[in-house]
Predict the 3D structure of the following.
Amino acid sequence: MARYLKLYLWFWAQRLKVLLEYPGSTLIGLFCQILTQIPGILAIWVVIRQVPGLGGWNYNEVLLIYGLLTVSMGLSFVFGQNLWFIGNGYIRPGSFDRLLLKPIDPLFMLVVEYFSWSGMGDALMGAVVTGKALLALNIMWSPLKVLALLLSVGSGTAIFIAVFLIGSVSAFWIINSIPVTALFYMTHIFARYPLSIYPRGVLLLVTWLLPYGFASYYPASYLLGKEAGTLVWAGPLVAATLLFIGYRVWLFGLRHYASTGS
Amino acid sequence: MNEVITRPRTEAALIRTVRRTVAAYSAIASISLKEAFAYTSRVWVPFVIQFISIVVFIYFWRAVYASSGSTLGGLSLRQTLNYVILAQILVQLWEAGYIGLFGYLLRQGQMGLELVRPIDFQFQFYTRQLALLLYFILQRALLIPVLWLFFGLQLPSNPWVWVAFGISVLLGHAVVFFFEWCIACLAFYTTEVGGLYQTRTALARFFSGSLVPLALMPAWLQALTGFFPFAQAVSVPISLLIGITPLTEAPRVWLIQLLWVVGLGVLSRLIFRVAIRKVTVQGG
């Protein structure tokens, strides 16, 4: 375990060296990623400020949901983006065999080979929006609320990564796993707004099947003292379960891996 | 005497040239179409994702109207929903750009090969984009009955409205094409195009009116959208289709779009002529 932690930090150091090699490009990349978040936020700003609220949530409360989700989403790309590329980047050109030959776990190797810097742009923008909303909302802070906030960012990130992992396994059969991963991933846009605006089916989907709600709606509800908030404590458990399922699915897929060639 | 002999010859030559040109461009169009349909998952997954994003927007706007009353910015809930559904579909015209392809051709050194082909480089790209528009229409057409069935999407029955809309989409598509061309030429200077692409997409998503109908934006934002070409391919044709802009206004709308097309078209040719000097192909 200690060895893996050391390796993880070492890979991060290498990635940072690459990023610092072209500082201009790195900064522009970050800036452009931040830009991509602006339309969604601007839309909330334009619309929700004109009306009393969205399903009983006011402007700043909706921003809090949006911000929290964006933080988890951004961080999941920082730590897990390479899971998207397993098919096109590894299995198709045959370099997945290289991962299997390393004296460390192939999944670990796959994840650490690339940290997405642009995800940092999303996470930063999400943090700014979350911070703005939290300041405007005058929340009565308590140690429990701070804990809930931190736990939900952690479990939200883990939920996204687990979904990437489950999607990536399809690469063992269909090579290009990006469409499958994208399909699972894009469901997260439901969780950008209060889940109370959707019919029950969507609520169940985003709570128990692809549980993005634990990254946004439930922690925001808890911080604001709303009814659905108590579910926030289930977040870590849901995330752990999903990661466990993801890892089992991964092992199952790995057994079915046939290298390129005939 | 000579004239009699040469005239049929030049006519034959002309016919041959026209035939060759048509054959070349239709080959490009058909290859682009085949390429687009080649991977089944690349056809149906965007379709499902598109459906998800539309569903999110439908419930979002229902909740907005539930708390605000019957009209917002002069639009009823039904009008806004019709608008937003169609806008989510049409905004894809902005996303299916070719900035990335330009960057790829440059980095791979294939740009040289493209430039020596005996056909107009820009028109070749335009043909490709037209074929992709056809692909796009075929692929997304199924969404319309689904959305009509489940979410009561309303479309006009007057065929002239559809004609007006069709012309407006074609013009809007050309606006997108020439604007993309100007931006893509920047790749000759920057080589890396990821940032350009993201910036353009972010601006397009908002200023095309795909997220929020322009009528709901504050006046200063509405004024700002007029300076960008983005709305010409999304908000403008949709407003015609769902009756926000009356049919009698159609010629005026087309004229404005045509001005954008001509302006950006000329600009794109000029920029290309300057930028092409920058091209370095593998070893300069």
User: Anything to note?
Assistant: The longest strand of chain B covers residues 71-72. The interface with chain A takes residues 39, 41-42, 45, 48-49, 52-53, 55-56, 59-60, 62-64, 66-68, 72, 192, 194-195, 198-199, 201-202, 205-206, 211-212, 216-218, 221 of chain B (CB under 8 Å).
